[in-house]
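Example S7 (C-alpha cells).
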C-alpha cells in the first residue's frame, strides 16, 4: 500500500495534483488507516496514470471522467471531438502569433503593406519622425474606415511624395512641426501651400473623386492635424485668408456675397 507521496511519485505527478484530482472527483479518496494516513493500492496508481495521460494530451479535466468510463466507440468519438477543438485552438494561437509578429514589425501592426511602404519612403526622404508618426496615425484611421480604398490612395500618395515641389513643401511643413502660431515663416508657407493647391485644383478640374471620404473621417483627420502641430490652427487661418478651407479635404471658399 502506498502513501499519497509514493502514489504521486509512481504516476509522475505532484501531491498537490493528486489532491486536485480528488477534489474533482476523478480519483477516489481512500479512507484513512489506523495511523491516520490514506493508503493507495495498485488500482489507484493505474487510474492516476490514466488521468495524467489524458490531461497531458489536452483533454479538459471536465471530460476526463467521461473518457475513463467510455467504451471503445464512445472513447474514439470523444477523442475525435477533442482533437477538433485542439486543432481550432492551434489555428487561433497561430493567428495570435501572426499578430504578435506584426507588433514586432512596428508600422505594419495596423497598416496594409502599401501604407507601410509609403511610411518607409518618407523615412528614406528624411521626413522628421514626428511628421511620420502623424502621417502613420492618419492612415491607421483611414485604413480602419476605408480598407478597400487604401491601395488606390497609396498610388496617389506615392506619386505625390516623388513630386519634387510637393515633397519640398511637405518637408518644410515638417520643419515647422513645433513652431509657434506667430512664427514669421508661416505666411510664406501659406502662400506656397495655396499656390500648390491652386495649381492642383486646376489640373483636377472636371475629374470626379472616385474615393470620397466621409465628413466624419475628414473631421477626425483634421482634428488630429490640429492637435499634432502647434501652428496648425494659424496655418489654416492663413489658408482661409487665401481662399481655401480645410486640410484633409481642401476646398475653395465661396466668395462672400
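Recovered sequence:
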Amino acid at each position: 500500500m502506498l502513501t499519497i507521496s509514493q502514489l504521486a511519485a509512481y504516476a509522475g505527478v505532484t501531491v498537490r495534483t493528486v489532491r486536485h484530482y480528488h477534489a474533482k472527483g476523478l480519483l477516489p479518496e481512500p479512507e484513512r488507516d489506523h495511523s491516520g494516513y490514506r493508503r493507495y493500492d495498485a488500482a489507484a496508481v493505474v487510474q492516476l496514470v490514466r488521468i495524467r495521460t489524458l490531461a497531458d494530451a489536452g483533454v479538459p479535466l471536465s471530460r476526463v471522467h467521461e473518457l475513463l468510463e467510455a467504451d471503445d466507440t464512445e472513447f474514439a468519438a470523444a477523442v475525435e471531438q477533442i482533437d477538433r477543438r485542439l486543432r481550432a485552438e492551434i489555428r487561433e494561437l497561430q493567428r495570435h502569433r501572426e499578430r504578435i509578429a506584426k507588433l514586432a514589425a512596428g508600422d505594419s501592426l495596423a497598416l496594409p503593406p502599401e501604407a507601410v511602404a509609403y511610411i518607409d519612403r518618407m523615412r528614406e526622404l528624411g521626413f522628421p519622425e514626428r511628421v511620420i508618426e502623424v502621417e502613420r496615425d492618419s492612415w491607421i484611421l483611414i485604413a480602419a474606415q476605408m480598407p478597400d480604398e487604401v491601395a488606390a490612395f497609396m498610388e496617389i500618395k506615392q506619386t505625390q511624395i516623388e513630386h519634387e515641389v510637393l515633397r519640398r513643401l511637405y518637408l518644410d511643413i515638417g520643419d515647422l512641426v513645433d513652431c509657434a502660431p506667430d512664427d514669421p515663416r508661416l505666411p510664406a508657407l501659406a502662400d506656397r501651400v495655396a499656390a500648390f493647391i491652386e495649381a492642383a485644383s486646376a489640373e483636377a478640374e472636371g475629374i470626379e473623386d472616385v474615393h470620397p471620404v466621409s465628413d466624419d473621417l475628414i473631421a477626425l483627420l483634421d482634428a488630429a492635424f490640429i492637435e499634432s502641430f502647434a501652428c496648425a490652427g494659424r496655418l489654416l487661418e492663413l489658408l482661409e485668408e487665401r481662399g481655401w478651407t480645410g486640410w484633409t479635404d481642401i476646398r475653395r471658399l465661396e466668395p462672400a456675397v
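Notes on this example. The mean pLDDT is 85.
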